[in-house]
Design goal:
The complex is a heterodimer of chains A (109) and B (113). Chain A is mainly beta. Chain A has no helices and eleven strands.
């Protein structure tokens, strides 16, 4: 079993839709949870991170962590065509980062 | 600040050839990482260096060697390239604190024929 599981999609939504992206994990030692956005042929860039359980909001983005279920989510409100990218979840227990495989998102104008 | 830079951007090798991928960061970060990214596999850690002078294996280290030349530079060497090493390679750096994120370079697209 992989440490981090993420549905690869692809996910296609109309502009303005609410998008939900999810990851599950197996290691209860994970404490920091990140979401990265990767545009085609570019390196990943951090969107936001959270520590332990709870919600964190940044503009149109909300990250949610449920440690009891080992489940994390990223919600994108009022999605825009510029949000079209691959979204990767990542989590760490220490020095090593564990990444999901990424979910490909396309927002259609 | 240039952030994290990688050279070369593209490379084609023949099986058995060797090469070194270069990475440098100008953010004074302690930790540096090498990943490979393959379709359906996501990002997988090859090696990392928690601080200058130290290196550790990640998830997929076989066939690779690394050198942390100084605080700024972290190189990845393929001694005898194999087609299975065809991938996109990313270098990243972080300050090392768990709350600090990794900053990624633009990647090197490597094809081994």
């Amino acid at each position: 079993q992989k440490e981090v599981e993420q549905d690869p999609g692809p996910l296609s939504v109309p502009e303005g839709a609410i998008v939900s992206l999810n990851c599950t994990y197996s290691n209860s030692a994970f404490q920091y949870f990140m979401w990265y956005r990767q545009y085609s042929r570019k390196g990943p860039e951090l969107l936001m991170y959270t520590y332990s359980s709870g919600n964190k909001e940044d503009g149109r983005f909300t990250a949610q962590v449920d440690k009891s279920s080992k489940y994390i989510s990223l919600f994108i409100r009022d999605s825009q065509p510029s949000d079209s990218a691959t979204y990767l979840c990542a989590m760490i227990p220490g020095n090593q980062f564990y990444f999901g495989t990424g979910t490909s998102l396309t927002v259609i104008p | 600040n240039a952030g994290v830079t990688q050279t070369p951007k593209f490379q084609v090798l023949k099986t058995g050839q060797s090469m070194t991928l270069q990475c440098a960061q100008d953010m004074n970060h302690n930790s540096m990482y090498w990943y490979r990214q393959d379709p359906g596999m996501g990002l997988r850690l090859i090696y990392y260096s928690a601080s200058e002078g130290t290196t550790d294996k990640g998830e997929v280290p076989n066939g690779y060697n690394v050198s942390r030349l100084n605080k700024r530079e972290f190189s990845l060497r393929l001694e005898s390239a194999a087609p299975s090493q065809t991938s996109v390679y990313f270098c990243a750096s972080s300050d090392g604190h768990p709350a600090d994120t990794q900053y990624f370079g633009p990647g090197t697209r490597l094809t081994v024929l």
